[in-house]
């Protein structure tokens, strides 16, 4: 029976010699898809690394690497070399309620006609599926990445919409420039120069569909399939998905208290084509990259002719002192592509962001934008331009900074009163991290919290390699009462583990 199982697995895992990805990555992807699609059932025993290597005609180290990554991400259980089985609870189910489980296998079977890129993108856990409803993403404590929608100036926004609809609608109905509504590009450039220390003109600014659209556009323009790319470990899932979907070989570089470990990246993957970083407020750990690390990263990019993708997604919200200037402003060699978004500052449904590109790449980026997106809706861009030019944007940021600082302080105190856990709450951003005791699985803790009506994200979700267990809690979108109620529910969930 075991021999039959191994033969069936070997058929499922047939590798392609022409595939540009490393063999271990091919094997990992095919095993993961087989697990998610139900071809490999929960509890199924996988072949030993030695026998599978022999069956596929590859080295045992290749199989070891694939198994280790599956083990680290929670798709299999056990220790490599001592028997490996398919996990009963998969990472994709970590936020499902008891009524939702199991959500696999047949519903997520991947159609065989998809391309390799399509399969990779379709299986990227960017937004855990249990969070999605026909109306959008569920809203409850402590949703990460959500701004304070209750504090958004809705009446003012409605007035700006009505004004634009009355006076400018005819001129906005035609096709627009693919780089975006020019007055908005001018307003963005002016704001970035003053508030973020970015070196740019309006011509370098391209309006995109949020930071995710910016990452995808940059990957299409700057990367070839097979290029090595540094990503933060742990790091943003959306960037991982977009870069991997572009065919890049992702190389995880550890993040410590000073941000991305540049020396580690240089020592282990010096020839990378691009590095994706969140230096002002690292996602998900919240640390700020030190100036020596920033300078070292810029020096590496200059020497290796590499690109830096700086995602500055919520750095406007620093509660102590002036927000740190962007790394792009230090880059005299123009190797840094800067990304920002209005989704975290205004509201997510707006889906508008921007990318600031190097002067000699402007035409290339605009051409690709024209071919893939043509342009984004002009009406919303005009309203955002009015919001900035009339001074509402700066005022809104200032008010949210005060509000988020207050909500952060309330959450920290409530957590300290209810739980004896280590808290990492940097003086910037929209979320904090609660570190769990050794031996507590953060994905299990996250699932238990969801069962108690609280949404927290496990740090391991954002990690390729094994990482300390912790939970992310967003505080921007919850008021004082919701914070206290959410903490009590979280405490009850953690005590049940």
TrEMBL record:
<keyword id="KW-0805">Transcription regulation</keyword>
<keyword id="KW-0808">Transferase</keyword>
<dbReference type="GO" id="GO:0030170">
    <property type="term" value="F:pyridoxal phosphate binding"/>
</dbReference>
<protein>
    <submittedName>
        <fullName>PLP-dependent aminotransferase family protein</fullName>
    </submittedName>
</protein>
<dbReference type="InterPro" id="IPR015424">
    <property type="entry name" value="PyrdxlP-dep_Trfase"/>
</dbReference>
<dbReference type="InterPro" id="IPR036390">
    <property type="entry name" value="WH_DNA-bd_sf"/>
</dbReference>
<dbReference type="GO" id="GO:0003700">
    <property type="term" value="F:DNA-binding transcription factor activity"/>
</dbReference>
<keyword id="KW-0663">Pyridoxal phosphate</keyword>
<dbReference type="GO" id="GO:0008483">
    <property type="term" value="F:transaminase activity"/>
</dbReference>
<dbReference type="InterPro" id="IPR051446">
    <property type="entry name" value="HTH_trans_reg/aminotransferase"/>
</dbReference>
<comment type="similarity">
    <text>In the C-terminal section; belongs to the class-I pyridoxal-phosphate-dependent aminotransferase family.</text>
</comment>
<feature type="domain" description="HTH gntR-type">
    <location>
        <begin position="21"/>
        <end position="89"/>
    </location>
</feature>
<dbReference type="GO" id="GO:0003677">
    <property type="term" value="F:DNA binding"/>
</dbReference>
<dbReference type="Pfam" id="PF00392">
    <property type="entry name" value="GntR"/>
</dbReference>
<keyword id="KW-0238">DNA-binding</keyword>
<dbReference type="InterPro" id="IPR000524">
    <property type="entry name" value="Tscrpt_reg_HTH_GntR"/>
</dbReference>
<keyword id="KW-0032">Aminotransferase</keyword>
<dbReference type="Pfam" id="PF00155">
    <property type="entry name" value="Aminotran_1_2"/>
</dbReference>
<dbReference type="InterPro" id="IPR004839">
    <property type="entry name" value="Aminotransferase_I/II_large"/>
</dbReference>
<dbReference type="InterPro" id="IPR036388">
    <property type="entry name" value="WH-like_DNA-bd_sf"/>
</dbReference>
<dbReference type="InterPro" id="IPR015421">
    <property type="entry name" value="PyrdxlP-dep_Trfase_major"/>
</dbReference>
<keyword id="KW-0804">Transcription</keyword>
